[in-house]
Amino acid sequence: MDFHNTLIKWYLQNKRDLPWRKTTDPYQIWLSEIMLQQTRVAQGMPYFFSFTKEFPTVFELANADEEKVLKLWQGLGYYSRARNLHKTAQFIANDLKGVFPPTYKELLKLKGVGEYTAAAIASFSYNEAVPVVDGNVFRVLSRYFDIESDIALPPTKKEFAQLAYELMPKEEPAIFNQAIMEFGALQCVPKSPDCSVCVFNGSCLALKKKKVDVLPVKSKKLKITNRFFNYLVLEDVLGNTLIQKRTSKGIWHNLYEFPLLETNGIVDFNFVAKTIREGILSSYTITALEECSHATVIHKLSHQHLHIQFWKVKVDENVVNGLNYNELKSFPFPIVIYNFIENEEKSR
Q: Which segments cross the bilayer (predicted)?
């Protein structure tokens, strides 16, 4: 079909120079695909270089402490990806002797590897004819063929995967998968694509029917939860502070934070003062409390909006296991807390 020839020709002329495209090593391809889930290429690139430098093979990654992995991942978000990455590296290194499964079906069994990632590794590393279906692919195919199926529904993914498989030249699955994703990322973008320069502007049904802005169809809306975090930044007589590890399941699992007072809404000075004196910090003699209003932030995650306030709390004792600001920087933090620490250190 002319579709794949036109697409691949466009790709060879317009593709970005990305490091994971220069190898068939399944370790590097797996690493890049996990990093690029929910992440733009420009943001993920420095992390890819950091990880491949620190962990050049799956064995180094497997043998690393989880905290070191989380520290290198800091700022990339969706930290369950990093924890799953580490566990899967240990499984591959220890149980599979460092050899990645060579087929799509076997790759799917790895922790943290879904259909898209398994298809990417299988096609890019092993040239298996299995299509990748991500947001870019949904967008390109739904527009070109005028498909109104709801991409939020599971059956739709099978429909698009079958179509992509039919379009794919079976002898060149890797380049076809790369091409269709790149086309969605660079040309057939979500908002206001420049259809005047598109190589498919003579055959795209969405363009003909003036439906480019309404495809693909996605009906399911994510429910956003608002949460209110008040971080208590202790400072003892030595200038040290206190942090804790988030061990419960949920956001930021196994990352560090300051003592947390979570509330049902934004709270004022009097509420925090009363609460910490009567409860969360009742064992300390508090000499001063100050809201760091300059650091108040709304941190948006995919399913939660975190309304974060920082409160400086001076105490008249030495904090047990207290740390200075320089020591703090070696721990993995959510980026919003790490940024606060960086700014505080600069102002000292």
A: none
